[in-house]
Amino acid sequence: MRIVFIGPPGAGKGTQAERMIEKYRLAHLSTGDMLRAARDAQTAVGKKAETYMAGGKLVPDEIIIEIIRERLAEPDCQGGYLLDGFPRTIAQAEALDRMLADKGTPLGAVLELNVPEDELFRRLAGRGRADDAPEVIRQRLVAYREQTSPLLDYYRQSGLLKTIDGLGTVEEIFQRVESVLDRLAS
Ligand code: ADP
User: Fold this and answer.
1) Using CB atoms within 10 A of its CB, is residue 133 exposed (0-12), middle (13-18) or buried (19+)?
2) Which of 32, 36, 25 is nearest to 3 (CA)?
3) What is the pLDDT of residue 34?
4) Residue minimizing CA distance to atom 23 of ligand 1
5) Residue 59: CB within 6 Å of ligand 1?
6) What is the C-alpha to C-alpha distance for residues 84 and 111, in angstroms, rounded to an integer?
């Protein structure tokens, strides 16, 4: 199963992603985690990415596309994966489509975790990561609205989009996720 998981910052994607990879035995490809690790290790990529991350901006497409290209070639991806935080722009989605077409491994679904913006801001304000300062939060929500939300139409048109209501308990939301993924797996 190859799944893309899309949702604004604060939607609770991380929590649901952990459950999904465990239940469905998927490799977890979180570009946020990969970039934070690169930044902390001060690799060449990490040094390039850190200014963008600190400002709540997206890192340039070329950087992130290369990271994903290399990651998808690793053996643990052959059994299926969850793309978490990628793609985040139309250019990234188009690059992904080309990579997967070349491999002959199409996506099974694109899950959108949907949470209204006022609720997101409330949740993020109470979280306290270094890039969670109010101005940076605002910037990340702007990046989502302007650069990532156009992907919803992109994937709706290809028939892959499944929208999941992100309000409720972790358990309630995971049941909604399961009802989509159990159908795909069968
Ligand atoms: P969030 O908590 O906002 O969902 P992530 O943990 O997924 O954020 O990512 C943190 C930061 O890493 C983003 O604000 C952005 O700077 C960068 N980043 C992660 N994934 C991508 C991507 N696919 N394209 C560009 N930048 C990305």
Assistant:
1) middle
2) 25
3) 96
4) 86
5) yes
6) 10
In this prediction, residues 65-71 reach a mean pLDDT of 96
Pocket test of ligand 1: the residue of 30, 40, 47, 59 to mutate, having most ligand atoms within 8 Å of its CB, is 59
Give, using CA atoms, the residue closest to atom 2 of ligand 1.
9
Local structure of residue 42 (DSSP, 8 states):
T
Mean pLDDT in residue range 62-66: 97
Report the pLDDT averaged over residues 6-15.
93
CA 73 to centroid of chain Cα atoms: 19
Q: What is the chain's Cα-based Rg?
A: 16
pLDDT confidence band for 122 (50 / 70 / 90): confident
Cβ burial, residue 13 (10 Å; 0-12/13-18/19+): buried
- Which stretch of DSSP H or E encloses residue 29? strand 27-30
Q: What is the mean pLDDT of residues 29-36?
A: 96
Q: How far apart are CA 124 and CA 134, in angstroms?
A: 9
Task: Render pLDDT for 93-121 as a digit per residue (tens, 0 to 9).
Answer: 999 999 999 999 999 999 999 999 889 88
Give the phi and the psi of residue 97 in degrees, each rounded to 5: -55, -45
DSSP designation for 146 = I
